[in-house]
Amino acid sequence: MGENPSVIATTSPSDAILLGAVDIALAALLEQVDKVDVGPALGAVQEGDHVATHAFDCLRAGYRGWKWSVTVARAEGQDLVTIDEVVLLPGEDAIIAPQWVPYKDRIRPGDLSPGDLLPVEDDDPRLVPTYSFGDDPLSADDKAQIRQVAQDLGLGRVRTLSVEGRELAAQRWYDGDGGPEAPVAQSAPAKCTSCGFLVRLAGPLSEVFGVCANGNANDDGRVVSFDHGCGAHSEVQLSRKQQPLPPADHAFDTLTSDEFEQL
């Protein structure tokens, strides 16, 4: 482990003293890390004038692809090598945690429990103020004033779906389990548009969607597209070969006990 590792060239003048300080870097590393967790030297990189970093393979369980990084430095005109820092860094093949995703982007239907709150931001593009008009964006003060007036007058909802919010919901529903591409719809004998259990909606979404009201269907109480379908369609009929066989005629046992004993 004391052999000179490969050197990665930089635009700074080569510092042979720092690039050759493998043993010094290793000694500093072993002061903080168990020897069994340290592998061979992987090379050295000159970070700038009088600063270089030595890398060592990490053998610690659970850290495959990681490397120990030891940064060394020296003062101008001095040969004394000092230690700047010792850290553990991920390599190209390292197993690392996935990129952070804000909680509001991780929430999925069914994640909320009783008592959980999921606030909606004032500038959420899916919503627009119900009691405002015009295309000009509203300031935070204007939005707060509209909310207060709506609350004082008891006018109902402060915000309603924007065109973008409506289109996002429609696309999500159409692509989901209540749309035409669902496996149950692909094998359905007829579409929801002709089903007697379909409850029509009001508003712009009524042209594409309804709500299933068949208590025996998988989609009962859910939004379905008109071109969705399932086997519980109101007009579905079984073919003759699919109908259950009628029960056989009753058989009357006329065998007496005396006749039974003679058998």
TrEMBL record:
InterPro entries tied to this protein: DUF3027
Source species, domain of life: Bacteria
Residues covered by region (Disordered): 238-263
Protein name as catalogued: DUF3027 domain-containing protein
Annotated source species: Nocardioides cavernaquae
